[in-house]
Specification:
Structural class: alpha/beta
InterPro entries: N/Namide_PRibTrfase, NAPRTase_N, Nic_PRibTrfase, Nic_PRibTrfase-Fam, Nicotinate_pribotase-like_C
GO molecular function: glycosyltransferase activity; nicotinate phosphoribosyltransferase activity
Pathway: Cofactor biosynthesis; NAD(+) biosynthesis; nicotinate D-ribonucleotide from nicotinate: step 1/1
Helix content: 40-55%
Distance between the termini: 50 Å
CATH class of one domain: Alpha Beta
Strand content: 5-15%
Number of helices: 17
CATH topology of one domain: nicotinate phosphoribosyltransferase
GO biological process, one term: NAD+ biosynthetic process via the salvage pathway
Strand order of the largest sheet: 5-4-9-8-7-6
Family: Belongs to the NAPRTase family.
Shape: globular
CATH architecture of one domain: Alpha-Beta Barrel
Number of strands: 11
Largest sheet: 6 strands, parallel
């Protein structure tokens, strides 16, 4: 029997936005309950249910981990992380009773349910575990050889680009690859290589552990779950986006100012993103739909509000690769600040088709929540009645 090899050895091996959302929920809605559900959106090369035993072992191990003093010290050094949240993390430990994995035919079912501040951080860890276990069954030597060749080609492509100094804004690229990475070791190699080879373009990573270890900037603000939770926090449904943005402003008071736009679609978001929020937030993040159409809407909205788009940042994070990044940058570099978070194409481009796995919030405080993304395949809900109601409230037609 093979010796147990943990996928995760540090609770800091996680996206920054999990910590920032976690802190906001702890301070403002510590009593909220939540349920998260794992889903695979494409067809894997073998049934994910085959991983059940290994997943259970890894979850058992995850629930033994604690934040170390060094890790807490690093979090404390981030000016937007508050002392009482660090004190909470000092005591925090995942509870195994809040997460269950099972097999449903060929499918792997994983559900985390309980107090939100005790279950919301499972998400990225679960995705990292499933990904790494899945790819351990393939030829690692061939995968890493392919990955290194492709990474070198990406670096050469970026080096060949003539980013003229007269462009209004620089090209800035980030690693957003924790959730779909081939392995933790490979992500570390990729990020280290990008840091060393492309310092003029590569500006940070969402992985807090790697940011600490490699001396680079941790990147991230909010994800869909944060805004979705407000659909179940007692505010009028039509007002949930405004309530979420206002709560974020009160929590961070100028820090972490990139707002996510596609929980009910860009048009519905902009209807709520008035002059007050447009001035308070530093920019917007795209995660579904046509990126250029989205950018045009964002720039037009700022101009309508008499805000100079050059003072705002448009961050792109939806299925990016280097050619897409360069095309978007070329179109927008003289119109607004940009940023590009590349996930799978950096950390899981090794010759195997990645599995499209997510672990999304499906219920909060006992009621359904949903996402109406600008890409139909990214719409998320298991409650069609609530989804129809949400569409009606925000005037979003079914695509």
């Amino acid at each position: 029997m093979a010796a147990f090899c943990p996928v995760l050895t540090s609770l800091l091996d996680n996206d920054l936005y999990k910590f920032t959302m976690w802190q906001a929920m702890l301070h403002r809605f510590p009593q909220a309950t939540a349920e998260y559900e794992f889903t695979c959106r494409n067809e894997p090369q073998y049934p994910l249910s085959d991983l059940l035993g290994e997943v259970d072992e890894q979850l058992d191990h995850l629930c033994t981990l604690r934040f170390t003093d060094d890790e807490l010290g690093y979090l404390s050094s981030l000016r937007f992380i508050k002392g009482d949240f660090v004190d909470f993390l000092r005591l925090f430990q995942f509870q195994r009773r809040f997460i269950q994995a099972s097999a449903d035919g060929p499918h792997l079912r994983i559900t985390a349910s309980g107090p939100q501040v005790h279950v919301m951080d499972f998400e990225i860890h679960v995705l990292a575990i499933v990904n790494e276990l899945y790819f351990r069954r393939f030829d690692a030597e061939a995968a890493l050889r392919t990955g290194r060749e492709r990474l070198t080609a990406k670096i050469d492509l970026l080096r060949s680009v003539d980013v003229a100094p007269e462009r209004a804004h620089p090209l800035e690229i980030f690693d957003f690859g924790v959730r779909r990475r081939y392995s933790g070791a490979w992500q570390r190699e990729v990020v280290t290589t990008l840091r060393d080879e492309l310092p003029e373009f590569f500006k940070g990573t969402s992985n807090v552990l790697l940011a600490r270890d490699l001396g680079i900037v941790p990147i991230g603000t909010m994800a869909h779950e944060y805004l979705q939770t407000f659909q179940a926090l007692g505010v009028r449904l039509r007002d949930f986006q405004r309530a979420a943005l206002e709560s974020w402003v009160q929590e961070y008071r100028g820090d972490l100012g990139i707002a996510l736009t596609d929980v009910v679609g860009m048009d519905a978001f902009l209807a709520d993103f008035d002059l007050y929020f447009a001035k308070l937030f530093d920019g917007l993040r795209h995660d579904s739909g046509d990126p250029m159409q989205w950018a045009e809407k964002a720039i037009a909205h700022y101009q309508k509000l008499r805000i100079d788009p050059h003072t705002k940042r448009l961050v792109f994070s939806d299925s990016l690769d280097i050619p897409k990044v360069l095309a978007l940058y070329d179109a927008l570099a003289d119109r607004a600040m940009t940023g590009f978070g590349i996930g799978t194409n950096f950390t899981n481009d090794v010759g195997h088709e990645p599995i499209q796995i997510v672990m999304k919030l499906v219920r909060a405080n006992g009621q359904s929540v949903a996402k109406l993304a600008d890409t139909p395949g990214k719409t998320q809900s298991r409650d069609e009645t609530f989804l129809a109601y949400l569409r009606q409230v925000f005037g979003v037609s079914k695509v």
